[in-house]
Amino acid sequence: MTQVRRATPGDAGVLARLLWDFNTEFGAETDDVDVLASRFARLLDLDAAYAVLAEDGDDATAFALVTLRPAIWFDGPVATLDELYVVPHLRDRGTGTQVLDLCRRLARETGAPEMHINVDEVDADTRRFYERHGFTNVESEADGRMLCYVGSTA
């Protein structure tokens, strides 16, 4: 039976392995697991981030990472779901929903009225998952697509 809980800094190595698996599954560039583990440990010591971990017995089956940032538009922070991953052979069994539900509950507890998620346009399955859970794309006919720009700080 799957148990979903808030992760602790002690879970950093498990979270790092899941993130590495996620990135390599989709051919994305990724750092080594030890580098990711160090970053997870640092992030999970902050008030501005939390992770959720799903486990089935001794097996880690899914995780999510949420960061919080101050916002001028609300009294509370804006939550950003940075990552959500379910191991491939356990997809479509409700684990992702359990992880997302806990992420949202924890966000509400911090006072965050919104959760933002960036999804690749071509990732139809992921878009359907979030839409099924009440998330909407902010793109409108009049305004066009909202784009996310990334640049170096150097």
From TrEMBL:
PROSITE patterns: GNAT. Its EC number is 2.3.1.-. The keyword tRNA processing does not apply. Keywords: Acyltransferase, Transferase. Residues 2-154 form the N-acetyltransferase domain. Pfam families: Acetyltransf_1. CDD domains: NAT_SF. The keyword Transmembrane does not apply. This is GNAT family N-acetyltransferase.
